[in-house]
Amino acid sequence: MKGKEKALFSSICVLWMIFVLAGSIALPILFRPFYYLQIEPLHLSEGSGYTVPEIKEAYDDMMDFCVFGKGEFKTGVLPYSEEGKAHFEDCAVLFRLDLVLFALSAVLLVPAYIYVKKKKLHLKAYNHGPRYFAGYFLGFLFLMIGLLCALDFDAAFVMFHRIFFPGKTNWIFDWNKDQIIRVLPEQFFMNAGICIALMILLGCAALILYDIRRTKKQTPSGNRTFPA
To answer: Considering its fold, how many domains does the chain have in total?
Structure first.
């Protein structure tokens, strides 16, 4: 590949990585039944003293603010502090950034492949296209991260907050002042992390298998290649 083709190859690879990563993170953010289905198994009503409808209302209010910026921050009938509110405002920035990256990567992949097809480029490295390397690198990275989290989730949880909320401690909630944390136990975040990791690995596997399938369609002589 020439210099421009290498740059395009790398760009498409990065876009696929962002698409899979951001899309996997977006799933538990946007799919609210993921939370609803855990209310009973995690005994959130018994543990918090709030009814299931009150818990759902608190979660919906919080997510409406964090994802869509709807109105003022609130958590249903559950009280909250200004520090707690400030943390969710920080979360809102990250949530919306993830959704923007997901949408942007999807949009940019379309003209990239149109250009590849129009110019009849054959973007291959070691007989594999960008999808293969995107799946390989992202999958390996999160497999390692997943293993480290499995060894010590508490340490990973703290490290995550120190990285994404540098210099802040408002993510350490007082259960009496910010009672939303009563219905957002550590197990829920662990389940969300597992969901995200599984989606990433499935997405990576799909990219790799798709690329392998296309590679196998080549003629025995190896002269025929397909666009990325």
So the answer is: 1
